[in-house]
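Look over both lines:
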Amino acid sequence: MKENIEAVEISLPREYIDRLNMVSLEF
């Protein structure tokens, strides 16, 4: 799973990743 997440981070913009992290913290 971790490898897949790293691949997604490379393909997606940093801002989008930060938003996902913030949403995860909210939940």
In short: The chain has a mean pLDDT of 73.
